[in-house]
Design a protein that fits this description.
Layout lengths: L8 H7 L4 H7 L4 H9 L6 H11 L3 H5 L2 H12 L5
């Protein structure tokens, strides 16, 4: 199942004034994987979603689901991307 982040993971990190290294220290997500997820969060694992949710103290639904994600998905489909 693909997930489209409601918010860019990089934006969440920067809003919290964290470096990539600080996020990797506070989660179980390796640095290279975190860099990948910041550029493409559509293939994020459930355990990674939980780590991100816990780190930023936001629900997974708030970060990864919702009206913005629905809009992004429909726009992507309209532009010829994958659903």
């Amino acid at each position: 199942m693909k997930f489209v982040s409601r918010y860019c993971l990089k934006d969440l990190r920067e809003l919290n004034r964290l470096t990539l290294e600080q996020v990797t220290d506070r989660t179980t997500i390796p640095l290279e994987r975190l860099k990948f997820l910041e550029s493409d969060s559509t293939k994020i694992e459930a355990s990674e979603r939980q780590c991100i949710s816990k780190l930023y103290n936001l629900s997974m639904e708030y970060i990864f689901f919702g009206k913005q994600a629905d809009f992004d998905r429909k726009l992507n489909e309209y532009l010829g991307g994958t659903p």
